[in-house]
TrEMBL record:
Segments forming domain Digeranylgeranylglycerophospholipid reductase catalytic: 176-243
Keywords, in A-Z order: FAD, Flavoprotein, Lipid biosynthesis, Lipid metabolism, Oxidoreductase, Phospholipid biosynthesis, Phospholipid metabolism
GO molecular function, one term: oxidoreductase activity, acting on the CH-CH group of donors, NAD or NADP as acceptor
UniProt-recorded name of the protein: Geranylgeranyl reductase
InterPro entries xrefs: FAD/NAD-bd_sf, Geranylgeranyl_Rdtase_fam, Geranylgeranyl_reductase, GGR_cat
Gene3D superfamilies membership: FAD/NAD(P)-binding domain
Species: Nitrosopumilus adriaticus
Biological-process GO terms, alphabetical: phospholipid biosynthetic process
Amino acid sequence: MDEEHHYDLVVVGGGPAGSSAAFAAAKNGIKVALLEKENSIAETVRTSGVTWIKNIKEFGIPDDCFNPIKNFSFCSPNNEVMISDSVPRAAVLDVRKSYRWLAQQAKESGADIFLKVNVNNVIKNEEGDIVGVTGIGPNGKITFHSKVVIDASGFPSTLCKAMGFVSQWKRFGAGAEYEVKAENVESDTWWLMVGQQYSPAGYAWIFPLGNNIVRIGVGVGKPESDVDPTQRLKELMDSKVGPIKKLGKLTPIEFHYGLIPNDGLSRDTVFNNLILVGDSAGQANPLVLEGIRYAIKFGRVAGKVASEAIKSGKTDKDALKPYEENWRKAIESKINSAGKVQDRWIGLSDEEWDKELDIIKELNSEEFIDFIKAEFGLSNMVKLATHHPKLAVRQLFNLVKGKK
Ligand SMILES: Cc1cc2nc3c(=O)[nH]c(=O)nc-3n(C[C@H](O)[C@H](O)[C@H](O)COP(=O)(O)OP(=O)(O)OC[C@H]3O[C@@H](n4cnc5c(N)ncnc54)[C@H](O)[C@@H]3O)c2cc1C
């Protein structure tokens, strides 16, 4: 028999955005269902898991969920730079542990988690607004009725597509990664590798997790390049180029693959009874294509706003608007600025990358972190663009400010 459920809020997708939305909404006292298609939360890992310790602390993620990083190394075909910090500011997450912790927070706050529920359609009312979802559950067809739905399904954006509000992302990053055991690992040092050999439109990386485990990956921008990241990764690992050689013998543990939107903040994210959050909303920093901290932060905002709207009995687009206003105010201008730097980076030749690293060398660790995080505070940028002792750095920050 078909299974049927009634909730105040249904959240589709048990990634960082969905679990965080379910947590905030349940904590605010409404009845929440979190639906995940896989057998367990984070069964498949689709991310490298780099984020920032400041954000980790803000979210309350426990210390045993990440490996701290304090040295940031870059290499291009003929150049190399390492920016070192006295304290670690970046981190590589144990993705499964962290995502399961986020889902556990939702559960402890009262959300019901349904696993093995693959949502494939929406239920609409007479006005054409969403009032629930249907899918295939462990026992066949399953239906969830709700006042508000949050689409946290990630790149596929299942619900907003089913509503006809959006089509497939046109510009995106495709990434392939091996988690491997390596012989020689500096556990507090990451590597970003740029230039045609590594990725014709993107970069390759080595992110350490501790215990001699590293994630080695390649990201390729689409449609800019038709290179297959999995193939390129295998070639790089076989030929052991650049810093991969220093790792010594590599024993693969697990393969990861994923897609991340890179279309800027092009989508509306609130509709009557519907919110988009995380990758389904395109909330990613385009400089290095990182979205986990935004997924958690704005997932919580989405859950809070949705639950307030439900309590007030008004869940149309206007009632959900504070969510969109909140995230746009926080990141829109930063992401637009970062997009300009990304446009510059995506077109660089090997020789130009060698020179770009000379510019990056001039940044101190704080400037570097702000830059790579796209934390472009305007006064900071104006200061750096006007007063940085190096002309090339002034030009880079002028670009961020919007000048040519
Ligand atoms: C190769 C790669 C490397 C990356 N590296 C980093 C990094 O180092 N740092 C960083 O911050 N970001 C990184 N990102 C981006 C980051 O992974 C995303 O921004 C983040 O995962 C977005 O979270 P989310 O919850 O929106 O989506 P997701 O993490 O994709 O979660 C979506 C969830 O929804 C579930 N789901 C999907 N469809 C359905 C359905 N129909 N029914 C039920 N459940 C469904 C999925 O199984 C999944 O659990 C990377 C991305 C890629 C592709």
